[in-house]
Design a protein that fits this description.
- The protein is α/β, with parallel strands linked by helices and 507 residues long.
- Among the domains are: 143 residues, Nitrogenase molybdenum iron protein domain (Rossmann fold, 3-Layer(aba) Sandwich), CATH 3.40.50; 168 residues, Nitrogenase molybdenum iron protein domain (Rossmann fold, 3-Layer(aba) Sandwich), CATH 3.40.50.
- Helix content is 45%, strand content 12%.
- The protein contains 22 helices and 13 strands.
- The radius of gyration is 23 Å and the shape is globular.
- This is Nitrogenase molybdenum-iron protein alpha chain.
- InterPro entries: Nase/OxRdtase_comp1, NifE-like.
- GO terms for molecular function: oxidoreductase activity.
- It comes from Heliophilum fasciatum.
Length: 507
């Protein structure tokens, strides 16, 4: 395990720490082998060692999101805290959509529905010349006067990275004055090529300044690292006599403080949970559950058994596993008959996609292709039991067309043409309209827990039947729209041709 450094306020990027890539094309088995994680050996095909992969580099990017936005959707979702975006007002545009997501998340958890508490320092041209420290100080005091929060987060931006504002000194000074944690989160958009570094930046600040340093252990408390999804963990873990501590989204500062007191840490996606779970184990001795993700029978069984082993609840786990297998089997068999011959495609974050493909194959659905928005060759624990890609390949078979691309629309057309699916599962919905214009319905998984666990297989199967019932609408749409690409590009067989042969841009 590579040691996580909490002595500095700046988190190490995913590229530095994990060797993250955002462009690759081939088979899932090939990517797993090149990652050399659970496979043994560490020599990649391009002569580089360890976790460095042969990444494709395109000549341009059509659109993505940044680390600062992930700080918005993490630190900005702590219920009794305030996030200050030290940025131009454009960076605050994400507050609109994140406020909607936050309110929906609160409603799904039966919590009081309220608005986000975010403030933008509104940096302008003069601030780029003379600095924005004064605006930051004033914004922190405004946040205190308006909301009396339990903590204040400060998210940096590309602009503040260019200015060189001393955010750490301002935070330290105001923390002493206000007597609450004032936490700098260094998440400049240009610092990392993939937005998942923003998850790590938020979690880094929480670990440094909020998590209780002298914990009193609670033997039945489990940290669940998640986003805004429905609470499927409380009834599941309740069968084992365990309590849930949801973090980071929709948590209170008190919830974050007690993370160091938990008996274990779990998550629904290694991309989101890798940094926080590993650091909790490293710094506070809270075991991270090193097991496959809880998707499908095999993954959920293994996940529950490892959690039971760590918390000494093996008998309860076995009873629950047997009960759930028996409960879902009849409906699952019906769904398999109804979905026989269907072909699906998954376009989500990396570890989450691995889990969803497993569920689709449990449902008897053919999955010949998938797009993941990035790939981490390893996770922070570097434990082979968390190699979700190898687990998928070994237990559910290969994916012949497995691509890594950070939400590039111009590539998505070609990727779908390769496999011609009946439907797609998608998490970041910006690509869904293009699929619809090709006659392909999409299930936008706004609730990230929808497919998790035993019930998740049934949930996902019923959702797929629902969207397939509307396929005629999408086919009619496809018959009456024109795609905004030249015929030459629509005829191109390789969606990554501009990365493989960048001179084609000038030809």
């Amino acid at each position: 395990m590579t040691r996580i450094n909490l002595d500095t306020t700046v988190v190490e990027t995913r590229e530095q720490r994990l060797g993250t890539i955002i462009a690759w094309d081939g088979k899932a088995s090939e990517l797993s082998h090149e990652s050399a994680y659970a496979r043994g050996g560490c020599e990649s095909s391009c002569g580089q060692k360890g976790r460095r992969l042969c990444e494709l580099h395109g000549p341009f990017t059509q659109g993505s999101v940044c680390s600062e936005q992930m700080v918005e959707c993490q630190a900005g979702n702590v219920r009794d805290a305030v996030l200050i975006q030290h940025s131009p007002i454009g960076c605050g545009a994400g507050q609109v959509i994140y406020n909607s997501i936050y309110r929906n998340g609160l409603a799904m958890r039966n919590l009081p529905v309220e608005n986000l508490r975010m403030i933008c320092t509104n940096l302008q041209e003069g601030d780029m010349v003379f600095g924005g420290v004064a605006k930051l100080e004033q914004s922190i005091r405004d946040a205190w006067e308006r909301h009396r929060p339990k903590a204040i987060f400060i998210g940096t931006s590309c602009a503040t990275g260019i200015i060189g504002d001393d955010v750490d000194s301002v935070a330290s000074h105001l923390e002493e004055e206000l007597q609450i944690p004032v936490i700098p989160l260094h998440c400049e958009g240009f610092k990392s090529k993939h937005w998942s570094t923003g998850f790590d930046a938020t979690q880094h600040g929480i670990l440094r300044q909020i998590v209780r340093k002298n914990p009193q252990k609670q033997e039945d408390l489990i940290n669940v690292i998640n986003l805004w999804g429905t609470d499927v963990f409380t009834p599941m873990l309740g069968e084992l006599g365990l309590r849930v501590n949801f973090v980071v989204d929709l948590a209170t500062v008190a919830d974050l403080e007690q993370m160091s007191e938990a008996a274990a840490t779990v998550g629904f996606c290694h991309t989101l949970s890798s940094y926080l779970a590993t650091a909790l184990e490293q710094e506070f001795g809270v075991p991270e559950i090193k097991a496959p993700l809880p998707y499908g029978f095999a993954g959920t069984d293994a996940w529950l058994r490892e959690l039971a082993r760590v918390t000494h609840r093996e008998e309860q786990a076995e009873a629950y596993i047997a009960k759930e297998h028996a409960r879902v089997a009849p409906r699952l068999e019906e769904l398999r008959k109804q979905l026989k011959g269907k072909k699906g495609y998954v376009a989500t974050g990396s570890a989450y996609a691995h889990g969803l493909i497993a569920v689709l194959r449990e449902l008897g659905i053919e999955v010949n292709g998938s797009l993941v928005f990035h790939h981490d060759p390893i996770y922070d624990s570097q434990d082979p039991r968390q190699d979700s890609l190898a687990y998928l390949v070994d237990n559910y078979g290969d994916v012949p067309s497995f691509s890594v691309s950070n939400r590039q629309q111009y590539q998505f057309y070609g990727l779908l043409q390769r496999v011609k699916p009946d439907f797609i599962l998608i998490r970041h919905n910006g690509l869904a309209p293009l699929a619809s214009r090709l006659g392909i319905p999409a299930a936008p998984l706004g609730d990230e827990h929808h497919a998790l666990g035993y019930q998740g297989m049934i949930n996902l199967g019923e959702t797929i039947l629902d969207i397939l019932s509307h396929k005629k609408f999408h086919q009619d749409l496809a018959a009456h729209v024109t795609l905004p690409y030249k015929k030459e590009w629509l005829a191109q067989q390789d969606p990554f041709i501009l990365a493989r042969k960048p001179l084609n841009v000038e030809e």
